[in-house]
Amino acid sequence: MSHQPLPLAVRPVRAFSDNYIWLIEAPDGPGRVVAVDPGDAAPVVAELRRSGASLAAILLTHHHADHIGGVAALLELGKVPVIGPDDDRIPLRTRTVRDGDRCDMSDLGLSFDTLAVPGHTLSHVAFWGHGALFCGDTLFSAGCGRMFEGTPAQMNSSLNRLRDLPPETRMFCGHEYTAANLKFALAVDPANAAALAHRAEVDRLRAADLPSLPSTLALEIRINPFLRCDNPTVRAAAEAHAGRSLPEESAVFGALRAWKDQFR
Ligand code: ZN
Ligand code: FE
């Protein structure tokens, strides 16, 4: 008899052009699922019908419409807890979680730690538990979200908090941006063997119309330039592109993010 807990069963629901709404199967609630960032109700409803599952709760990482836009229509199927950060721009929230809060759904056998990760938006949170990380638009595979509301120092420290979670953590982010992100990652660090190998794997998956996710933090630490702002090669590339020296790690991050914003 094994005492190793089974990995959390999580499946993607595609929404819009490149969003993923993650459905987490409740370990203690057969047929019940938790939806993370349901920006659109229709594909979630279709997946619930197809699988015979029922919605038990909604987790929200941040207020952007492509992450919360389906909440109202999903609540018409039945009232469920809507758990998210303290932000008036998330109007249907029934429970607020702040940094360090434990997000328990004991009837479902689920429990996540809440991490405040400001940068993409100021109130953005990530949920970490059961060896899985739901990080919305903060960390992407081989990249990170745009800095809409935060400063480079804020977003850099948010990303470093995620980087410092256990390396075996499976990372479930909000968008399928991996191929474009790897193109940038390899512009920053062309000789990165892990990124080159991963590009081949992602090309194969995407050609078969399969998600490139989840990733793992162990992989991201090797391929993601935004988690490697303390790396001399990454720093040198950022300095060469910016045309000035970048003594602070947060300045390296800021220069990389600005470079990526106009990278094609
Ligand atoms: Zn967003
Ligand atoms: Fe988004």
Biggest β-sheet description: 6 strands, mixed
CATH class: Alpha Beta
CATH architecture type: 4-Layer Sandwich
Helical amount: 25-40%
Spell out the CATH superfamily. Answer: Ribonuclease Z/Hydroxyacylglutathione hydrolase-like
User: How many individual β-strands?
Assistant: 14
Radius of gyration: 18 Å
The total of helices stands at 9
Strand content: 15-25%
What small ligands are held by the chains? zinc ion, fe (iii) ion
Tell me the distance between the termini: 52 Å
Model regions low in confidence, pLDDT < 50 over at least 5 residues: none
Shape: globular
Per CATH, what is the topology? Metallo-beta-lactamase, Chain A
Structural category is alpha/beta
Mean pLDDT: 97
Which helices and strands occur, and which strands form pairs?
Elements: E1 10-15, E2 19-25, E3 32-36, H1 41-51, E4 54-59, H2 65-68, H3 71-75, E5 82-84, E6 95-96, E7 102-105, E8 110-116, E9 125-129, E10 132-134, E11 139-140, E12 143-144, H4 152-163, E13 170-172, H5 178-188, H6 193-207, E14 215-216, H7 217-223, H8 232-242, H9 249-261
Parallel strand pairs: 3-4, 4-5, 5-6, 10-13
Antiparallel strand pairs: 1-2, 2-3, 7-8, 8-9, 9-10, 11-12, 13-14
Helix pairs in contact: 4-9, 5-6, 8-9
Descriptive account of the structure:
- There is one protein chain.
- The protein has a single domain, classed as Ribonuclease Z/Hydroxyacylglutathione hydrolase-like (Metallo-beta-lactamase, Chain A), CATH 3.60.15.
- The mean pLDDT is 97.
- Strand 8 and strand 9 form a beta hairpin.
- It has 264 residues and is α/β, with parallel strands linked by helices.
